[in-house]
Amino acid sequence: MKIKEFISVTLLIAGTTIGAGMLAIPLVTASSGFLPAFVITFFVWLFMFVTGLLFLEATLWMPKDSNVLSMTERFLGKKFKIISGGTFIFLYYCLMIAYYAAGAPLFASFIDAIFQITLKGWIIYAIFGLVFGAIVGVGIKFVDRVNYILMTALFISFFVLVGVGNKNVDFERFVYQNWKSVFFAAPVLFSSFGYHNVIPSLTFHFNRKPKLMRYSILVGTIIPFIIYLLWQYLIIGAVDKEIIDQTLKAGKPITEALQSITGIGWVKSLGRIFALFAIITSMLGVSFSVVDFLGDGLKMKRHGKDRFFLCLLTFVPPFILTALDPSIFVLAIGVAGGFGEAFLNGILPAMLVWKGRYKDKLKSSFSLFGGKITLTVILVIGFLVMVLESIHLVKQYLK
C-alpha cells in the first residue's frame, strides 16, 4: 500500500463526507444537548463505516467501472435496479441542491469581495455550477489535486475557528440533555456521513486494493467524526440556543450565526471560508460519483463528449430546483439522509452482501464480523431511520 495513494483516497473520502450536512448538524442536535449529540454522532459514524465496508465488499465482486445500477441488477434483479437507481438520483440530487443552496451564496460573496462584482438571483447558482462542473468534467486526477488544496485550507480554517471560538464556550450549556429529540437528528447525520457513492469509482481507479480501501475508509471517516464533534462542541457551547433555533427556522447554515460567538467581524468571514471549502470538497466527490453512476446507467464513456453530457445531467437539474427555492437547504439535507442515505448506503449494501455471501456463495477478500446478525441489525436500523424522517416531515407539515 503506497502512502501517496492512501492519502489521496483518504482525503477524497473525508472530503466527500465533510460537506453541507456539517452546516446543519448543530441545528438539529443543539436541542438535545452535547452528550446526546455525541452519542448519536458516534453510532451514526459506526453504522456508516460498517456499511461502507459492505459496499466495498460488493464492489470487489464486480467488473471494472461498475456502479450501483450494475451491482443491484446483478444481485437483486431489475426491479431493485430501478428502485436503487431512482433512490440514487433522489439522494444525490438532494445533496447537490443543498450544496447549491448553501455554497453558491458564499461563493458569490467571495467574488464580490475580491473582484467587486455583485451577482444576484439565478446567476449566482449558474456560475457556481459552471465553475465546479468544469473541474469535475476534467476528470479524477484534477479533482484529486483540487481536493488536496481545499482540504488543507479546510483544516486550517476549521482549527483557527475552533481555537478562536473556544474562548467563548460556556460549559454550563453542556449540562442540558434532551434524549427524546436526539433520534430526529439521525437523518441529517446520515447525510453528513455519506461517502459510499465514491467507493466504486475509487476502488476501480486505484486497481482493486482491498487493504488500501479499508484503511482509507476507516481514517477517511474518523476525520469527519472528530471534526463533527468539535464543531458541535463549539456551536452548542458558544452560540445561544435562540440564535440556533432562528437559523434553523430560516433554513440557513449555522455559519450565518458564527459572528455571535465572539462579535469579531472576521470570524464570520472565516466561518464562511470554512463552510465554502466544506461544501466544495463534498460536492466534488458527490458530483464525480454521479457522473460515473449516470455513465454506468446510460452505458456512456467517462470522457470526451459523453463526459460533458454527463456533467450537464449532474449539475443542471439541481441548479434549476435551487434557483426556484433557495431556502431549501435544511429540508434537502434531512430528506436526503432520512430516505436516500438510509436506503442506499444502509439497507442496500446489506442486501447486496447477503445475496453475494449466502445465496451466490461468492468468496470475499475480507468479510465483516457478525455474519447474518450484523446484516439484520443494519437492515432494521435503516428502516427505523426512514420511519423517523417520515414522522419528522409530517410534524413539519402540520406546524
Proportion of residues in helical segments: over 70%
Mean pLDDT: 84
How many discrete domains?
1
CATH superfamily: Amino acid/polyamine transporter I
Report the CATH topology name: Amino acid/polyamine transporter I
H/E topology pattern: HHHHHHHHHHHHHHHHH
Termini distance?
A: 54 Å
Shape: globular
**Structure summary, number of beta strands:** 0
CATH architecture level-2 label:
Up-down Bundle
Structural class: mainly alpha
Assigned CATH class: Mainly Alpha
- Major beta sheet, specifics? none
Determine Rg (CA atoms, Å): 20 Å
* Number of helical elements: 17
What ranges have pLDDT less than 50 throughout 5 or more consecutive residues?
none
The percent range for strand residues is under 5%
Based on the structure, what is the oligomeric state of the protein chains?
single chain
Descriptive labels:
399 residues, globular, 17 helices, Amino acid/polyamine transporter I, mainly alpha, 0% strand, single chain
List the topology elements.
Blueprint: H1 3-17, H2 25-29, H3 34-59, H4 68-76, H5 78-115, H6 122-138, H7 140-165, H8 179-182, H9 186-192, H10 199-205, H11 210-238, H12 241-250, H13 259-262, H14 265-298, H15 304-324, H16 329-359, H17 371-398
Helix pairs in contact: 1-7, 1-11, 1-14, 3-11, 3-16, 4-5, 4-16, 5-6, 5-14, 5-15, 5-16, 6-14, 6-15, 7-14, 9-16, 14-15, 16-17
Can you give a write-up of this model?
The chain is globular, with a radius of gyration of 20 Å. It has 17 helices and no strands. The relative contact order is 0.21. By secondary structure, the chain is an all-alpha fold. The N and C termini lie far apart (54 Å). The protein has helices at 3-17, 25-29, 34-59, 68-76, 78-115, 122-138, 140-165, 179-182, 186-192, 199-205, 210-238, 241-250, 259-262, 265-298, 304-324, 329-359, 371-398. Helix 1 (3-17) packs across helix 11 (210-238), helix 3 packs antiparallel against helix 11 and helix 5 (78-115) packs across helix 15 (304-324). It has a single domain, classed as Up-down Bundle (Amino acid/polyamine transporter I), CATH 1.20.1740.
